[in-house]
Amino acid sequence: MGSLRRVGTANVYMAVMDIAAARSRLLVAATCAALASGCAPASQGRGHDGFVASAGRSVATPVGVPPERTIAAPLPSLTEARTTSFALDRIDQLDLPLDRTYRHRGDGRGVAVYVFDGGVMADHPELAGRVRRGFDAFPGEERLCNAHGTAVAGAAAGATLGVAPAAEVVDVKMVECKRMRGSIDAIVRASRWVLADHAAHPGQRAVANWSFIADTAGAVPALDSAVADLRAAGIPVVVSAGNVELDACQISPGNAPGVIVVGASRLRHVGDGAGEVVDARAPHTAFGACIDVFAPGDSVLLPGMDPTGDPISQLWTGTSMSAGYVSGAAALFLEAHPAASVDDVRTHIAESSAWTAVDAKSPRAGMLYVGTGVPASRVPASRRVAARSGG
Fold first, then answer.
1. Residue 269 annotated among the catalytic residues of the structure
2. Is 148 a catalytic residue?
3. Alpha-helical regions (H) of the chain
4. Catalytic pick among 191, 320, 322, 352
5. pLDDT (tens digit, 9 = 90+) per residue, 291-316?
6. Distance CA 59, CA 301 (A)
7. What is the pTM of this model?
8. Lowest mean pLDDT: which of 19-23, 100-104, 195-199?
9. pLDDT tens, position by position, 272-292
10. Domains (range + CATH), the chain
């Protein structure tokens, strides 16, 4: 079930979802079916509620870098690594089944991802050595509210669980820990800080990740202006669509001009549960013409922390995590195309994802793709969207 509650007078919302144990087991089964060689479900425990999107189930998982091999190719190089992340496995190929491998060109080196959230665990093994502390809207309290920002950063730039494993993460804290809420003012001030910081790092390309929703009834002019200022500085803004069953065009900041709006996808069985596994929109995910791209966001393995504050890997659910994957994809593109405009980034994300259909209610948006090529014979998903919703 999903619920939406107002957090603060400035209309910043936190979407909280509870994932039933039965649904979690079905997700694991679908993921295993999608893997060419099958898999064994991991033991699961309770996760943490996060800002905007929700935590799923926690998983005690060793955090280490799998063996990699770099294949000779023009820069950026082609890297191929075995992966425990079905999300990374999904976004590097056009079709199912999965093959337990993540192949991508480049690693995001030289690109900064500004993570607007409730803090990032700088010493998590997935991120250690690549997190820079940035703006803090509430300097009189602890720096880390929960693990949500760490998960988002991990999706973008985790060493083994992220899309761009060498990108820099800049921790931009705009959530007040004691109340677990942000504010429009905090986001605007954070954006101004990012503009100044970006100007202080000439030659470095950057992406802003906004994994939050601010209003479900219309635009927020202050956020529209912040987006425009970031884009004018050459920083694309990646936004989570929201964990609500609403038209994404109603939701701020996803309705701000020029943002890259990301919906959450899942794997599900067609028919009686024993048949083909397909991509679909995840339950309680915003939909519609304003969605630019889908990315995995249903029980995805990402960095987290246990109740004592120690780093772990755990399952997360929500469009926040999906946005993190797309921020990582933007970092890969900017590494390879350092002169690209913000519109170039948005166009690349949309066009490269257009080959795999996800949701009939969101016909413009396909599955995020960071793989190494698209066969000329493929027909864009927008021309062949199957009549299947993710509900």
1. no
2. yes
3. 21-34, 86-91, 148-157, 184-199, 221-232, 319-336, 342-352
4. 320
5. 999 999 999 999 999 999 999 999 99
6. 8
7. 0.82
8. 19-23
9. 666 788 999 999 999 999 999
10. 2-383 (3.40.50.200)
